[in-house]
Amino acid sequence: MSDSASISSGIAERYAAAVFGIVKENNNLPKLEANVADLNAALAESADLRDLIASPVYSRDAQGRAITAVAAKMGLVPAMQNVLGLMASKRRLFVVPHMLTRLREMIAAEKGEVTAEVVSATALTDAQAAQLAETLKAKVGKEVKISAAVDESLIGGLVVKVGSKMIDTSIRAKLNSLQNAMKEVG
Are residues 130 and 160 in the same domain? Predict the structure, then answer.
């Protein structure tokens, strides 16, 4: 891991721990979980918001006013609103995506859940996702949340990551394996 990524994740960890601790103390984890999902979606959908948190062009005051307005409009819990304002005043909004990832992990751990990152060639139906979650639950022994993505280059099959384990049943992986085997022969 590079030094800058390590520093970012360290900063994000501290902010996430502070928000999580305050919200847990106030018994408001379900609201925080919804806030994390909403903020992640907003970051994914809005180039302007991504630019606001990452660009050094904006002043501290401009970043602070903008992020607190966004947080208030989204109805984020007070602890999250306050930490975003603090991060803006310290020029640390660039770590918000890392903080959200860490918060998601902390909430899942608190609930006894694990997240499975699933990449498929086509979008999974709700029934397929539910069946996959049940199958993984039997293997892992915990509730499993599916984080699905689509990568058409897989051709077919799935790539499933749960923690440090990865299962690649994609046709692309099978073709690559066959290609390597053919290279060894000839």
Answer: yes
The phi-psi region of residue 117 (left if phi > 0; otherwise alpha if psi is between -120 and 50; otherwise beta) is beta
Structure tokens that stand for 162 in this block: 């749960």
Domain extent, residue 126, equals 113-185
Residues 121 and 148: their CA atoms lie apart, in Å, by 11
Query: What pLDDT was estimated at residue 184?
Result: 87
Asked if 145 contacts 118 with a C-beta cutoff of 8 angstroms, the reply is no
Instruction: Show Cβ contacts of residue 98 under 8 Å, excluding neighbours closer than 6 positions.
Output: 8, 9, 11, 12
Q: Could you report the per-residue pLDDT of 23-50, keeping only the tens digit for each?
A: 999 999 999 999 999 999 999 999 999 9
Alpha carbons 103 and 20: distance in angstroms, whole number: 7
In total, how many domains does the chain have? 2
pLDDT of 74-86, one tens digit each?
999 999 999 999 9
